[in-house]
Write a structure and sequence with these properties.
Layout (H helix, E strand, L loop, with lengths): L1 H11 L21 E7 L8 H7 L3 H10 L13 E7 L4 E3 L3 E3 L3 E2 L9 E5 L8 H13 L2 E5 L3 H6 L7 E2 L6 H7 L4 E2 L4 E4 L7 E5 L2 H15 L14
Parallel strand pairs: 1-2, 1-6, 2-5, 6-7, 7-11, 8-9
Antiparallel strand pairs: 3-4, 10-11
């Protein structure tokens, strides 16, 4: 399928270099950028793979592909500008394999009215209280919250999933069920639930491999119905 081939090309080998969007190309640069928050703390790198799927829709990344292969140029007009906010502790935060990522915001100063909040977290027993308070506020104001693998337990610890259905890595489902009794944990690929008090819709996914398909499905079929303007950039 063309979509799968396109994603494999985009995610398989991407070298970073200066980007010059071709002057003759038409993009939707006048669209207000989506604000995508990435809440992370000692996260496994693969749990943030969905971030790459979302980011592939931006004008900057598609412009890279156009420079490599002009056949991608028609996709530029379907791209969606995005601003990425990295939310964590004050200092650079570790990601697996000793990678350090410096956040743009802390839990205390990050905006809570985002379009999307992607959560990638650590052992739920080691999370900081201020991160839980941020989640609670964001869940009332952000349009959509996404978790992958065991990261749903970070969200659960903040009480955001109370009374809701959710899923997590199959290996940790039993543990999650004994710790957060107010959450209805399901053994499913992913679970979609409406938010508390009319707030963020929650999407929880199982393992990181399943999450790639989860994010593709989200990107091309669901974001528009949630009031988020993601265009048909990859459905051609």
């Amino acid at each position: 399928m063309y979509l799968n081939k396109l994603l494999c090309k985009a995610l398989g080998a991407l070298t970073v270099f200066a980007i010059n969007i071709p002057a003759q190309s038409t993009t939707n640069s006048t669209q207000k950028p989506l604000r995508v928050g990435v809440l992370y703390e000692n996260v496994q790198l693969s749990n943030l793979s969905g971030l790459d799927v979302l980011g592939f829709q931006t004008p900057e990344i598609v412009a890279v592909k156009v420079q490599i292969n002009p056949d991608f140029e028609p996709l530029l007009k379907y791209t969606t500008p995005m601003d990425f906010l990295y939310i964590s502790s004050l200092n650079a935060t570790t990601i697996t394999h000793s990678m350090y990522v410096e956040p743009t915001h802390t839990y205390g100063n990050a905006p809570v009215d985002l379009d999307i909040l992607l959560i990638g977290g650590p052992d739920s027993e080691a999370v900081k209280e201020e991160s839980l308070e941020y989640m609670r506020q964001a869940s009332k104001n952000t349009k959509m919250i996404l978790t992958t693998c065991s990261d749903a337990m970070w969200l659960a610890k903040g009480g955001v999933l109370d009374g809701k259905k959710a899923t997590t890595n199959r290996v940790t489902l039993g543990s999650a069920g004994t710790k957060w009794l107010k959450v209805d944990w399901l053994d499913q690929r992913w679970v979609i639930e409406d938010g508390l008090f009319g707030g963020a819709q929650s999407w929880t996914a199982g393992g990181a491999g399943r999450a790639k398909f989860f994010y593709v499905n989200l990107m091309v079929t669901k974001l528009t119905t949630a009031g988020i303007d993601i265009r048909r950039s990859l459905v051609q």
